[in-house]
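Sample pair:
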Amino acid sequence: MRLVLAASALLLAAVPVMAQEKPELEQGFVLLFDGKSFDGWEGNLDVFHIRDAAIVGGSLQQDVPRNEFLTTKREYEAFELRLQFKLSGGPKANAGVQIRSQRIPDHHEMIGYQADMGENWWGCLYDESRRKKTLAGPKPEDQAKIVNMEGWNDYRILCEGRRIRLWINGKPTVDYTEPDESIPQKGLIGLQIHGGPPSEAWYRNIRIKEL
């Protein structure tokens, strides 16, 4: 009996925690997305739409021609951002949450940090359009242990000073301190759908606490 219980405990420990459908708004947090409008956001509304109280980027009926971003209209510096996400469209689906980022003038891309999403990228911190590389993150074999591939997941993003920390479903994935003092630590928040085969990125329950 003890062996059975021990095995069950290990199995549960390896299963990602399911995201609550509508978590309570934590003390000090405000909603960035009201679940029904794009108030406070801007981007290509041919690519992004609202469905079932979530922001959805991309399409399962056709290729996503290029990277697209829906961004906040204002900038944030020190904050804790919490949201729920899921990806649809197979193993090549990819997306992410931009933080401390800027739009590149006259271009569809953004430049800045990205809390990444997708196979071999879950929970990684990527430097979009700047150094174009992963700055920190878990190994691919560890990523699969924390992500619910078939449903919703929780992303927690904490930016304090030059330090950025990430969690997926309560599991820490990144603790990174920026060594380059020339890199801005203030900017827009953006929701990405990556260009490629048919895919959708879903985002909901987006809330923030400024520090």
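The chain has two helices and 15 strands.
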